[in-house]
TrEMBL record:
Tagged with keyword Transmembrane helix: no
Keyword terms of this UniProt record: Cytoplasm, Lipid biosynthesis, Lipid metabolism, Metal-binding, NAD, NADP, Oxidoreductase, Phospholipid biosynthesis, Phospholipid metabolism
Protein name per UniProt: Iron-containing alcohol dehydrogenase
Stored Pfam families: Fe-ADH_2
GO function term, MF aspect, one: oxidoreductase activity, acting on CH-OH group of donors
Biological process, per Gene Ontology: phospholipid biosynthetic process
Organism superkingdom: Bacteria
Amino acid sequence: MGLSELLGTKFRCDCGRSHDLTVRRFVYDAAAIDRLPDIVRQCAGHCVRAVVVADSRTWEVCGRRVLAALKRTYEDAYEIVVADGEHGTPVCDEATFQTLLARLREAKPEVMVAVGSGVVNDLCKWASFEMGIPYLVVATAASMNGYPAANVAATIAGVKVLLEARPPLAVIAEPQTIAGAPHEMIEAGFGDTIAKHQSNTDWWMNHRLFGEYHCNFCAGIVADLEPLYLDRPEEIKEGDVSAVEGLFAALFWSGVAMTLVGTSAPASGGEHLLSHTLDMIASVRGHRHDLHGRQVGVGTILSAALYEKILAIESPEFCTMPAQVDAGFWSDVAVAEAVARQYEAKRAGLDAVRRHLAERNTWDRLRAELAERSRRPQEIRGWLERAGGATCAAHIGCSTQQLRDAALHMHEIRKRFTVVDLAWMMGVLPDALDDIIAQWLSD
């Protein structure tokens, strides 16, 4: 079965589960917006009231055209423009969500069309789930893989979390819009995509250590997409339309893999924690942060370097991880308490991991399996350099000290075990961090 044949289907997988993909259409076409009324009707059925949700930039890029296309079929169609946050772009947090939700409830739409990328898509996904109405998304940049994902990356009480929702019924994009997006957004998409090597390694590690569910088919989707973006990084850097199309397809289908599995595991591991931590620090301390995918690219180099250090250890002596979070680092009592809850949930299983890894031949087997899956830091950095992506602290607008601080605290924010936790258990963190930063994450 080809990937496009999966859309809108439910199928039994060799992993033993049934996968249900409610995304029905993936349209990448120069006339996609002109076709939008028909796509809405095919996916959502007969609707009378439609709303277009955009931010101030995406409204000008193609939001007006989306509304005009819908009005040819839906007389009762209107727009909502999400306001910018204090740093000049919208944010996906509780306050913004509640404001959008109130406006939507007042308008009572029957279908919603998001026009934008990460934040706008997540806000609409969240609202769609809360209100029980269908939504579609008109993508405006190849900046992240969350378009078809079922979860929402939101900030709740200052903490980056994943919320359960439902994916859109369709993802629609026009090549001229995607290729014409600001280059830093394309760089972000490339950074988010190459992270899948490392996130899949973390996923496999959790499967081996904790018996976590793993699906070879969904992991294979991500692996099979490599030629779409790794074969043409220089052309992606130049904004070549066909090369950016390949990147966008890779982002879409890696997001589908998350939806099929029901978690972010195939596409988000320890490398994402650096970006989430930098976002949280920026939020509580009141300064800007860079695009998620650009930060993830730097985090992917860090993840690969951690794996390289870990896998060089033949006979590990397991260390005890910090007993509690560094509350002072988080600068906010509520955030520190929320982080502490995540960390405590993880620490409960760490002793069992240490005992298991200390068993005869266990580390040798796991070490060999992880070595097959993880990429070397020079490979990751080389791909990012060829695509024009961010590769060091300065490129993502933070100092080396800020990057170091985030790397030393990112294990605290999630209960899921990743390479970052393994690095602490092996003594790679904090001992080798300064060497890693000097070798791989400095300008």
